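Morning F.,

Quick status update on the modeling queue. The single chain you submitted on Monday has been processed. Sequence for confirmation:
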Amino acid sequence: MLYESSNKSGKVVFMFLLSDKYWEIKNTKNKGRGVFAKKDILKGVVIGDYIGKVIHPQDAIIDEENFYLMYYNDYAVISPDLKKPGVHLLNHSCKPSSFLYTYKGHTLAFALKKISKGEEITIPYLLSPKDDFCNPCLHICKCGNLKCSGTMHLSKDIYEKWRKLSEKWAKKTKKERIIFGKELPKLKIYPQIPEEYIGEIKKLFIF
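Structure tokens below.
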């Protein structure tokens, strides 16, 4: 079942597909800005779409903005407009309240569980295992959870399992046509997140 990417009860802003009655941006204690729920968000609800300009990886500027690039395919990445609110503001957590799902090439953030009013909306950044190029490593996790690993990088074993799982689900839908230098257009309709996918994610990561 699919639903329209609109909400008559409030304003839908940029990459967020939920009305702004459901979220707000606030400063956190030690992670900069973060996104918080203003109302309860039910499990499986699509929170937003990672929208931005389609560019070649080699054209990416190696500075702070580079941390916000999102993979589209081996030849294209999505660079969001950092001056506008969007899912790129979701902070990393070792015990996230939301997760990512690839649909027609788009990276969608969705509620992994019921997110209660006042709770921060977080995601795992799912970075590849740390290598010699990440030195000094700036991907330090400050989520504060009891089981915090201290890093945004995945272990080699979990990363390989996640990569295979992600590719399996991504292949279920065909990527839409993109134009380099232009903004990735929003989808006309957005999916409900399959319960099977949510189950496989929770089994792999044991959140």
